[in-house]
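Today's session is about reading a structure prediction critically. Students often jump straight to the picture, but the first step is always the sequence itself: look for stretches that repeat, for charged clusters, for runs of hydrophobic residues. Only then move on to the predicted structure, which in these notes is written as discrete structure tokens rather than atom positions. Here is the chain we will use throughout the hour.
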Amino acid sequence: MGSQFKYLTLFPLVTIGPTDVLPAVISGPSNQSVDEGTRTVNFSCKVIGSPEPAISWFQQNDVIPLQNTSVIVITRSGQTSQLSIINVTLADQGTYKCVATSNIGTYAKEAELVVKSK
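Below is the predicted structure for this chain, in token form.
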């Protein structure tokens, strides 16, 4: 026997080679509790993977990722992404999800934002 596989092919036609690493969120985001009207709340997450994964942010169970707006700012530096929510309102309360995606897999990690009314 003694035969070793150098590559694993998964359906549909995704080849995982010796340098491929499934995406993972290795730090963050963390649960937060803030007062309504807080100027800014920040969530961050750091991901790993090869090929380098894309990072998306989702609120609640939305299927469309969050985008930059006047009150949502998403930035990325290397393997770390930050989601900033400006002028926090009660409507911002809920679950936020950081999702790392590449052509070989997806990994997500969630955090809760609790907004206390004034």
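Discussion point for the tutorial: The chain has no helices and ten strands.
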